[in-house]
Every structure is written in C-alpha cells, then in structure tokens.
Amino acid sequence: MHSRPVAPKRFSDADHPYSASRTAAGLIFVSGQLGVLDDDIVPGGIGAEARQALANLKACLAEHGRGPADVVKTTVLLADLAERGEFDAIYAEFFTEPRPARTCYAAGALPYGARVEVEAIASAGVPRGSSERVTW
C-alpha cells in the first residue's frame, strides 16, 4: 500500500490519525478536503470554500498523477443543506460528464468551522474517460 500526505501545512502537521490520501486495489482514496488556504478557511462563504476544497482535492489527485476526470465517487458534507444549490453549481463546473457517483450529507459541524468537506475515490490507473468492470 502507498500513502502520500497532501494537505495544507496547518492540518497536515496536526496530530490526526489518518492519511491525506492512500492508494489500494487500483484506487486512490482522498480524505475529506476543506476550503483551506494559507492555514485558514477561505472567507466568502460556501462558494469560496467549495472552490478551494475542490482545488485542494485536485492538488491531492495531482500528487498521484490523476485529475478530476479520474474520480469515480465523492462524498460531500455540508454544514447546511440550504447551501446545496450553490455548492452544486460549483461542483458541476469542476466535474464534467461523466460525473462521479456522489453522496451528500448534512453535517451538524465540520472541522475548523468549515461549510463544506469533499472526499473522493479515484481510479489510479484506468485511462481517463473509460470505465472498467471489476469482477470479484
């Protein structure tokens, strides 16, 4: 197994019991990304945080030589589901067709007072834009 910690310095240096990302079984698992830049949640509400969280996700994927088109599943945590529409508009700009499968939850509280957190599972080796059937 392979692990590459990729996170803003403040959080990667924190004593958290998890990896920022790991690869296993041909997949990349990226821990939840917040809208953090320069050690703080970016100002500007859900829109600014969503853009930064997705940029941080993209940076994590790039460390593995992959990008948004390689993502097959995301989990989105929102502090307030009333902000889902604004988040969805930004998400739709970031992920083009075919979009990954997604689950979206309301979270009562997110780390550091964040409005959004996005985690992802991506293909580590399937060519961009293709599908692969896995037989167990």
Q: Please state the second-level CATH architecture.
A: 2-Layer Sandwich
Structure class = alpha+beta
Radius of gyration (CA) equals: 15 Å
Annotated CATH homologous superfamily: RutC-like
Q: Which CATH C-level class is it?
A: Alpha Beta
How does the major sheet shape up?
6 strands, mixed
Strand order of the largest sheet: 1-2-3-8-6-7
- The coarse overall form would be globular
Q: What is the total tally of β strands? A: 8
- CATH fold name: 60s Ribosomal Protein L30, Chain: A
Number of continuous helical runs = 3
Question: What descriptors fit this protein?
Answer:
about 140 residues; 60s Ribosomal Protein L30, Chain: A; alpha+beta; globular
What's this model, at a glance?
Helices cover 25% and strands 29% of the residues. The chain has 136 residues and is α+β, with helices and mostly antiparallel strands.
Textual characterization of the structure:
It is a single chain. The protein has one domain: 60s Ribosomal Protein L30, Chain: A (2-Layer Sandwich). The chain contains three helices and eight strands; from the N terminus they run βαββββαβαββ. The chain has helices at about 10, 45-65, 85-95; strands spanning about 1-5, 20-25, 25-35, 35, 40, 70-80, 100-105, 115-125. The strands form two sheets. Strands 1-2-3-8-6-7 form a six-stranded mixed sheet. It has a two-stranded antiparallel ribbon with strand order 4-5.
